[in-house]
Amino acid sequence: MVTLMLSYQRYAVFTCVALLTIASFLGAVYYSEWLLIITAISSALLGLGVYDIFQSRHAILRNYPIIGHMRFILESIRPELRQYIIEGDRDEEPFSREIRGLVYQRAKGVEDKRPFGTIENVYGSGYAWLTHSAVPMVIKDTDFRVRIGGSACKQPYDASLYNISAMSFGALSANAILSLNKGAKMGNFAHDTGEGSISRYHREGGGDLIYQVASGYFGCRNDDGTFSPEKFAIQAADPQVKMIELKISQGAKPGHGGMLPAKKISPEIAEARGIPMGKDCISPPAHNTFSTPIGMMEFIGQLRELSGGKPVGFKLCIGHRREFMSMVKAMLKTGIYPDFIVVDGKEGGTGAAPLEFTNRVGMPMLEGLTFVHNTLRGAGIRHEVKIGAAGKIVSAFDIARTFALGADWCNSARGFMFAVGCIQAQSCHTNTCPVGIATQDPLRQRAIDVDDKSHRVARFHRNTMHALGELAGAAGLSDPRDFMPYHFMFRQKDNEFLDGNEVYPYLPNGFLVSGSEIAELSDWYSRWDRASAESFAPPEIPHGPFTRRKIAA
User: Fold this and answer.
1) Which of 118, 201, 335, 472 shows its CA 20 to 30 Å from the CA of 375?
2) pLDDT tens, 310-343?
3) How far from chain centre, in Å, is Cα 545?
4) Domain check: are 33 and 156 in the same one?
5) Looking at the structure, do residues 33 and 166 belong to the same domain, yes or no?
6) Which family does it belong to (predicted)?
């Protein structure tokens, strides 16, 4: 009997609700009609329980009618429970409370100092620190700039060292885009449009734009989805557009396309992208305008010509290293050099992506940046191409370390989202963003006061640049672009640390094309040999262990 009772205890709540319904109804009949309120509520729950028992979609509800819904309720608010109750200050999910708090404070212009020492495990593996100078400097002007534009560029751009990374209108709300762009205008830094093209809200804000051209060619496409030179020339002629960025891949989902369902396409999105209403909007994984490294460089040359000589570059997350070397060989063969390359780390991620892509596809930013920087050095063309970097770059320390590894400037998406008010609810793809940033719901995005949030964006940028200036001064530098790997130390094990030059060294200029070879770099030469300017495909499919070229010492 006990065993039987235990096996049916999962129906205890359902049974209690049924008894309550009967009891309250009888009480209403014989004692007080006010008990009908309880009867109505319990009857509704009883009906829900009956439905749970006979539905076939959720096994847990069939076995635990009524009470089983608590599981789904708790699961739906799990991110909030973790963020506000369970999560520690340094738990990265994906950004720690400490980092989010730093952005909020700098965006609001309130005290951002910390008392009582660090909470970092300074003796733990992975810890990195900046080496300071005994003769620090004071940098008063922290409006740091870098000129982007090579010898073929007729309209170079003096960019801030910290800019807003690619986020499209459509993924972000109108008020979010307007806040970001107005903030960029106030702070005199750039705002990347993302692949969704230039919307009316980018134009209304008046801030400097980096016009991103992706595989969907939004804003510059023919009806069949191919590239339209005429439409591109019109877009690029806008004085607000300062640079053109060809997107090859992005950190969140390298090698993966995307689709905006027809039901999410508003007239404003259709206007910006140049797409029809009532039809799914497809972003193919690959470009249809070129298929070879040489074709890619020729397309970059065409974009530069059509734009009137504005800086043109490309953005990618490093995958097959040989393929990037193929691009560099194509630069050498055609003589067409991009004005810039933006290296996106796989840890980037404002775009929703399958979990396998988010977690396991693409190279992290630090390694990708080092590889791109040294490949350009090895080919002897690093001076021709500026490098931007993106991927969880939020604090001044993040920026300084990225410069040391070879970047000329940095971009941030989620950092500026935090400045607008993002609470890391991680519901960006559901159209239910609680703060109105990643949604097209007009009621939700009303939560964003554009005037207030745009000032926060500008303050976050200004205060971060001030902190960067303080870091550079502490290292004895007059400009943060002078950071080198040796300014940083990296703890590899609990009892061992290395100089930055040992972990992320700068390889010799021209070593890939000089004719003489360095034995320690045999793997670089082997990969360079397999790269081709004519094709992204490998010359042969390896079926065994990779064999490096043997170089006589």
Assistant:
1) 472
2) 999 999 999 999 999 999 999 999 999 999 999 9
3) 34
4) no
5) no
6) Belongs to the glutamate synthase family.
Examine the fold and report which residue of 72, 100, 115 is the final residue of a domain before the chain moves on. 72
Q: Are residues 422 and 316 located together in one domain of the fold?
A: yes
Overall domain count for the chain: 2
57 — pLDDT class (breaks 50, 70, 90): confident
Q: Which amino acid is at 471?
A: L
Euclidean distance between CA atoms 488 and 474, whole angstroms:
13
- What's the pLDDT score for residue 2? 46
Question: Both 303 and 395 in a single domain?
Answer: yes
**Residue 400 exposed, middle or buried by CB count within 10 Å (0-12, 13-18, 19+):** buried
Instruction: Classify residue 294: in a domain, yes or no.
Output: yes
Helices 36-54 & 12-30, crossing angle to 10 degrees?
150
Minimum mean pLDDT range among 117-121, 188-192, 371-375: 117-121
Name, in order, each residue with C-beta under 8 angstroms of 298's C-beta and a sequence gap of 6 or more: 290, 334, 336
pLDDT tens for each residue of 368-417? 999 999 999 999 999 999 999 999 999 999 999 999 999 999 999 999 99
Paired tokens of 176: 């979010």
If asked whether residues 156 and 54 sit together in one domain, one would say no
pLDDT classification of 546: cutoffs 50, 70, 90? low
CA distances from 430 to 171, 352, 433 (A): 10, 10, 7
β-strands 145-148, 157-160: how paired?
Answer: antiparallel
How far is 270 from 199, CA to CA, in rounded Å?
A: 10
* Residue 178 lies inside a defined structural domain of this protein: yes
39, 72, 105 - which closes a domain: 72
Determine the Cα–Cα distance for residues 525 and 174; give it in Å rounded to an integer: 49
Angle (deg, nearest 10), helices 450-474 and 97-108: 110
Q: Share the mean pLDDT of the chain.
A: 91
Please tell me what DSSP assigns to residue 548: P
Residue 498 domain boundaries: 145-503
Q: Enumerate residues 6+ apart whose C-beta is below 8 A from 506.
A: 373, 374, 377, 406, 484, 485
Selection from 350, 313, 345 nearest residue 173 by Cα: 350
Specify whether 204 is located in the same domain as 65: no
Half-sphere exposure at residue 306, Cβ-oriented, CA atoms within 13 angstroms: 19
Residue 128 phi/psi, 5-degree rounding, is -130, 150
Neighbours of 523 (CB within 10 A): 12
This prediction's pTM: 0.89
Pull the structure tokens for residue 416: 């500026």
Q: Let me know if residue 251 belongs to a domain.
A: yes
59 and 203 together in one domain? no
One-letter identity of residue 225: G
In which element (H, E) is residue 496 found? strand 496-499
Residues 169, 59: one domain? no
CATH code of the domain containing 444: 3.20.20.70
* Identity of residue 451: D
Bigger pLDDT: 138 vs 252: 138
Residue 252 CA to residue 24 CA, distance in Å, equals 55
What residues form DSSP beta bridges with 313? 245, 340
Residue 362 in any domain: the answer is yes
- Whole-Å CA distances, 287 to 215, 533, 538: 5, 17, 19
